[in-house]
Amino acid sequence: MTADSTYHHGDLHAALLTAAAAEIERIGYENLSLRELAESLGVSRAAPYRHFADRRALLAAVAADGFDRLTAIHRKAIASGKTPLARLAAAGRGYLAFAAERPQMFRLMFVSDLLGGNELPTDPALIKAAGESYVVFEGLVAATLDDPDEGAIKAAAIAIMSSTYGFALLRMNDRLKPFMYGALTQSELVDAVLSIKVEARPRSAGRNNRRKA
């Protein structure tokens, strides 16, 4: 029996995803090698290509799994039964904890060019996973706004995401220095980031008039 045959019925597909995620945390997604990944699993160099067209396809699958995990964090916050603001804060804490615990996965999801920035086509499964994660997040934001229109929801969602995303990267890259935060603890810094309040912009006069008619 060959090493390749020990992986059957899709086992190698799952094993590659697990091994790739672990390796990405160790060396960064830029340095992931399909050949070395195959060797670490005891399969032939050609074996991974039976499940993924190339290295980029494997990275896209790993990133999609990351977005699924982020969606689960958002849904857990929604199910908490707290107030809309408390649910949004819980989702934010989960997002920042995810970034701190899986920094290279976070970079793969939000810093790499897998979701754009080049001429290569974007993986459909990755687009679906990332889109679902954002829709759930938008719902969390919308619930905190008073009678918002679509533009208000999207503006608020982008503003809040920019704040948490920026903080996650600053902390990840050791850009937050003692002279910047002084006596503030990490918990207090997170509280400050999550305290950002974005109010719904006024509806247009035309829209208001339509609502009164």
Structure explained in plain terms:
The chain is mainly alpha-helical and 213 residues long. The protein contains ten helices and no strands. The protein has helices spanning 11-27, 34-41, 55-78, 84-101, 103-110, 124-142, 150-172, 178-181, 186-194, 205-212. The longest helix has 24 residues, at 55-78. The chain is globular and about 55 Å long. The model is unreliable at 205-213 (pLDDT under 50).
Descriptive labels:
213 residues; mainly alpha; globular; disordered C terminus
Strand residues, percent:
under 5%
Pattern of helices and strands:
HHHHHHHHHH
Query: Main sheet, how many strands, which sense, barrel?
Result: none
> How many helices in DSSP terms?
10
In which range does the helix fraction lie?
Answer: 55-70%
**Roughly what is the average pLDDT, rounded to an integer?**
90
Class computed from helices, strands and strand pairing: mainly alpha
What is the overall shape?
Answer: globular
* Number of separate strands: 0
Distance between the termini: 76 Å
Concise account of the structure shown:
This protein is mainly alpha-helical. Helices cover 65% and strands 0% of the residues.
